């Protein structure tokens, strides 16, 4: 098979392929749902005309009269598509000069059938046939030049948003008209149609159809074909080496004009030297480094400006001063700024292994009580370290994470976009939840890589803060224990002295009245001091000893009776409820809570006590309408020793109350809203058997 036969054979199959591609894309656009753009119908017509032209070439050949006539119709259809593209931003009405140019190009193309008929009518007259062929090729080249000028004005004058919509369509038309310009320019110069280029026209039409199919996709504005760094660098290296060798070959060939044996020797020697230098110099480390920098700087594009992102991240995290938000809020904001999210939340580990809300940025709908995730999801994120895209969990049956593991509030809230685990030394330090950005999109590989790196950096900051707080708390406890040791020593001495005084007073019988009064006073003082020592000695001791059945209703009445003379402490509900507890420790804990509620409320606002049970647990709630506390204060400071919201407060009451209740096997729940008030709920396990001596003293005192 000769070269001409091979190209004719290849042109036949390429033309059929181009026809099939145009037909498939036309049908796809015709059946596509949604709001079509203004050029939609004209593109379908142009694709149908292109498919008919490809079939005509495959049936009758590229140089026949039917192929030339159908090609004119195809060109007119694509010119109309080009004109309709100006309507995307309304410039088909405002740019009046383009209409005459389009009209002239269409007129020139309409003259093409007459030239083609003249060429084939006088094919036996060589001079007329050659002139007609030359004029036809020149007309087609001129139409291509005019179309390229229009296309340049279309894209250069478009807005940024319009360019994103026009990118694929403009690339398709640029390829079509540029190829036609080169084809007919060569044909006009050589006087005949080059068979190699003519055979490739079906492939070009298929590429045009493919680009229009991509441009019709709703996400085409976001789609970018960008090579990786490795591909960009290796391609540039091959291009430079190839260009270098070609240039050297042309230079050596040009020396053949001198003739002679010396010229031949010079050619061979120069090629040998050039190839050797190229192979030794270009693979050098320094040269590869220079090529890599140039390739990455000019040929590769990232979604993020990493320098700017890092500067903004460090600026947000390092913000200091009294007006600066807490680290949890700054961490959420720093992560949200990277993906342009409209909000973010940070969840930190609680004592039970679950994650609870620690802070949020521009997400006021979240609350501490409802925004949390259980230990199962936390363990999964710690084990895999994967960033979870919540749209995949909601909409896909093939999600890598079981939707049942994800908390319902994240599934139901469409604002929630992604879950980012914050891992430090293979340990989950926290979980960040990102809100959806204004421009909805899917996370890609670059998002995942950057969020993972930033997440690890944030995890290190959070771990450092937790360690710092633990050291401060330990140092404060050490100081507190040292002071308490001195206090206990002094109290022991005082108790011993008073006990000795009481014993000496018993020996004086001269004044019975004095002796009796002194004995009673000293005995009660010693009992109180010993009781104080007993309470102080409970700090750090193991709880659970001395628990007896206690009726929460009797405890609530006793506390209300205690404050009856000073403040209003009212019982809203007082169901009988017997629990296992240490009566003295329970009352001490509840007194702490009631006193805090009284201090936080206005003088005319009562504090309510509510006692209830569900058959398994007893519950006593203390409710006030005071100033309330922020979620951050409840989580980070309420139960921290030496931290108090009251001026001059020691900050150990809430901590002591919680520890006493925990020692009895119960728990202390807090629900507070700033400006509305606070609810403390003490929950203790109930007992089914009440002994005959159960809290007799307490019942007698209340009665």
Automatic annotation (TrEMBL):
NCBIfam families: PEP_his_kin. Its EC number is 2.7.13.3. PROSITE patterns: HIS_KIN. GO terms for molecular function: ATP binding; protein histidine kinase activity. It comes from Tsuneonella dongtanensis. The chain crosses the membrane at residues 6-30, 42-61, 98-120, 132-156, 168-192, 198-218, 230-252, 264-282. SUPFAM superfamilies: ATPase domain of HSP90 chaperone/DNA topoisomerase II/histidine kinase, GAF domain-like. Keywords: ATP-binding, Kinase, Membrane, Nucleotide-binding, Transferase, Transmembrane, Transmembrane helix. PANTHER family: SENSOR PROTEIN CREC, SENSOR PROTEIN RSTB. This is histidine kinase. It catalyses: ATP + protein L-histidine = ADP + protein N-phospho-L-histidine. It holds the Pfam family GAF. It is an enzyme of class 2 (transferase). Residues 486-688 form the Histidine kinase domain. It comes from the Bacteria.
């Amino acid at each position: 098979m000769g070269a001409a036969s091979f190209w004719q054979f290849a042109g036949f199959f390429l033309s059929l392929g181009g026809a099939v591609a145009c037909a498939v894309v036309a049908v796809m656009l015709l059946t596509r749902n949604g709001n079509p753009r203004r050029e939609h119908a004209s593109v379908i017509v142009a694709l149908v005309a292109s498919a008919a032209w490809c079939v005509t070439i495959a049936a009758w050949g590229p140089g026949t009269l039917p192929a030339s006539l159908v090609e004119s119709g195809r060109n007119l259809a694509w010119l109309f598509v080009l004109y309709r593209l100006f309507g995307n931003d309304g410039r088909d009405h405002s740019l009046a000069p383009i209409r005459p140019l389009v009209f002239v190009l269409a007129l020139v193309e309409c003259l093409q059938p007459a030239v083609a008929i003249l060429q084939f009518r006088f094919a036996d007259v060589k001079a007329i046939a050659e002139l007609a062929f030359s004029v036809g090729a020149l007309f087609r080249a001129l139409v291509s030049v005019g179309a390229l000028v229009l296309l340049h004005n279309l894209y250069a004058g478009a807005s940024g948003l319009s360019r994103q919509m026009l990118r694929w369509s403009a690339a398709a038309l640029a390829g079509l008209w540029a190829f036609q310009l080169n084809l007919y320019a060569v044909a006009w110069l050589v006087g005949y149609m080059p068979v190699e280029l003519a055979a490739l026209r079906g492939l070009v039409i298929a590429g045009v159809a493919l680009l229009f199919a991509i441009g019709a996709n709703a996400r085409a504005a976001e789609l970018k074909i960008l090579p990786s760094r490795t591909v960009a660098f290796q391609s540039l290296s091959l291009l430079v080496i190839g260009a270098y060798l070609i240039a050297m070959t042309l230079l050596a060939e040009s020396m053949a004009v001198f003739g002679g044996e010396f010229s031949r020797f010079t050619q061979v020697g120069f090629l040998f030297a050039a190839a050797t230098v190229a192979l030794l110099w270009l693979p050098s480390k320094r040269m590869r480094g220079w090529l890599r920098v140039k390739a990455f700087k000019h040929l590769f594009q990232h979604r993020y400006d990493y320098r700017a992102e890092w500067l903004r991240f460090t600026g947000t995290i390092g913000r200091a001063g009294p007006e600066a938000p807490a680290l949890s809020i700054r961490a959420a904001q720093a992560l949200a700024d990277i993906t342009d999210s409209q909000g973010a939340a940070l969840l930190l580990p609680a004592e039970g292994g679950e994650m609870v809300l620690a802070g949020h940025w521009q997400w006021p709908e979240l609350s501490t009580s409802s925004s949390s995730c259980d230990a199962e999801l936390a363990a999964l994120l710690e084990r895999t370290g994967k960033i979870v895209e919540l749209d995949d969990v909601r909409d896909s049956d093939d999600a890598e994470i079981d939707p049942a593991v994800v908390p319902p509030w994240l599934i139901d809230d469409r604002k929630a976009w992604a879950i980012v685990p914050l891992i430090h030394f293979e340990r989950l330090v926290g979980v960040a939840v990102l809100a959806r950005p204004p421009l909805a999109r899917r996370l890609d590989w670059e998002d995942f890589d950057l969020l993972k790196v930033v997440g690890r950096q944030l995890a290190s900051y959070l771990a450092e803060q937790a360690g710092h707080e633990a050291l401060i708390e330990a140092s404060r406890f050490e100081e507190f224990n040292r002071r308490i040791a001195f206090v206990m020593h002094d109290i022991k001495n005082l108790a011993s002295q008073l006990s000795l005084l009481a014993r000496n007073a018993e020996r004086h019988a001269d004044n019975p009245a004095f002796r009796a009064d002194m004995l009673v006073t000293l005995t009660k003082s010693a009992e109180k001091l010993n009781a104080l020592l007993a309470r102080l000695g409970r700090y750090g001791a193991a709880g659970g000893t001395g628990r007896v059945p206690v009726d929460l209703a009797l405890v609530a009445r006793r506390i209300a009776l205690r404050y009856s003379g000073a403040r209003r402490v009212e019982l809203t509900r007082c169901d009988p409820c017997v629990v296992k507890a240490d009566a003295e420790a329970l009352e001490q804990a509840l007194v702490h809570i009631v006193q805090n509620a009284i201090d936080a409320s206005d003088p005319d606002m009562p504090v309510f006590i509510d006692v209830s049970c569900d058959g398994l647990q007893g519950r006593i709630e203390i409710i006030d309408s005071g100033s309330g506390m922020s979620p951050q204060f409840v989580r980070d400071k309420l139960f921290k020793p030496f931290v108090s919201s009251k001026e001059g407060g020691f900050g150990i009451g809430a901590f002591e109350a919680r520890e006493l209740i925990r020692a009895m096997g119960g728990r202390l729940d807090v629900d507070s809203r700033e400006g509305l008030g606070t609810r403390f709920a003490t929950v203790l396990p109930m007992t089914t058997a009440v002994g005959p001596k159960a809290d007799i003293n307490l019942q007698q005192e209340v009665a």
